[in-house]
Write a structure and sequence with these properties.
alpha/beta, Alpha-Beta Plaits, Rossmann fold, 7-stranded parallel beta sheet, 5-stranded parallel beta sheet, 21 strands, globular, binds flavin-adenine dinucleotide
Length: about 400
Amino acid sequence: MKAIVDPQKCTVCGVCQDVCPVGAITVTETAAEISDSCTLCGMCVDTCEFGALSLPEVGTGASDDLASYQGVWVFAEWRQGQVHRVAHELLGSGRKLADKRKVELAAVLIGHQLDGHISELIAHGADAVYVVDRPELAHFTDEAYAGVLHELIRRKKPEILLAGATSMGRSFIPRVAALVSTGLTADCTELDISDEGLLLQTRPAFGGNVMATIVCPNRRPQMATVRPKVMKPCCDTSRKARVEMVDVPTSCFQTRVQVLEVIPEQEATAKLAEAEVIVSGGRGLRNADNFELLAELARLINGAVGASRGAVDEGWMDPSRQVGQTGQTVAPTLYLAVGLAGAIQHVVGMQGSKLIVAVNKDAHAPIFDVASCGVVADLFDLIPALIRKIKAERGDETCKMPGA
Ligand code: FAD
């Protein structure tokens, strides 16, 4: 999509060419011409005193061909040679939606050298896998991946498109939604479908104080992103599916971005997301040194240390350790919440944990509402005692208080 020129009104004055910040306008002898680099910023429209430029209408009114859109799609994100777990989780959720709607579930794989990923997408629930495999797509860029996904949607018309609310999904999926003129609900925590085929997209709203269910009745596809570890994957290695290698024109993946280097994700972030045991601390820890207590406990039970935003804002823990709405979503087997209140913004990031154990000296702390079991105690009594007990059972009696 790009700005529209009315050649009858264009006086070829060249002012629009000068103001365009991305160089998308060339003034020829007869009229201004807009290239695909146009970002729809509207500066040319505001500047043209002859009213010769306008922006296309985006997402207004109902699409007239809603019924021609069919099927559920999952964007299968992969990085560093591995399919991201969120793709498996979305296929698990997409499977339920597709079965309710009695339509096909497809995974979309974009990149290069992708053969090794196809069978796992099928095992995780896909009835079809659309593959766009080009060397130019080996590294992710917003423009190229958005261009390819836009082209696939244009050709095949899926009714629903799901993607991970990862740094990649958050970056390019809104661009895809804009290109196809539809709505997007980001960071959903729950998905369902109505009898009429409306995707019911539930997510925290108003700073996490209410859960809102959002629908997109007039445009297609219905698009949502979901955080990792919110949905449950399913796996059946005996499943069979259709695989379609799709050829798209090079114009779809042209980009102004050149990837110079790919820096792997920070280890702390990756560890927290994958950890089966997390010991998380909050402002109740009082200072950064006291987090060593949690680190010691985490080491003993083979866990990772997380933190509330309260603790991160105090500068006691690195932001990569933050759990919650503006941090990471985790779902370990055991989440030990120590000296943190359990604000809704924290809870949305850890409520998928199998067992939540809370330690708080305030019996009315909201964390106890979500905890599987809770201990009303001073953490500075309980955690050292717990460490001592574990060590005693393993034949090592020492437990130092931080700073001691
Ligand atoms: P506090 O609220 O100060 O709670 C400390 C707790 O420690 C209390 O319950 C207290 O009883 C207990 N305590 C104190 N001393 C002891 C002791 N000796 N022994 C045992 N217990 C003790 N927060 C997040 O965590 N993650 C997010 O991603 C996030 N995103 C946000 C996004 C927005 C838009 C907003 C507005 C807020 C967000 N917050 C987030 C902040 C959130 O609302 C809370 O302010 C924050 O989680 C509070 O951190 P806390 O529980 O550590 O601190």
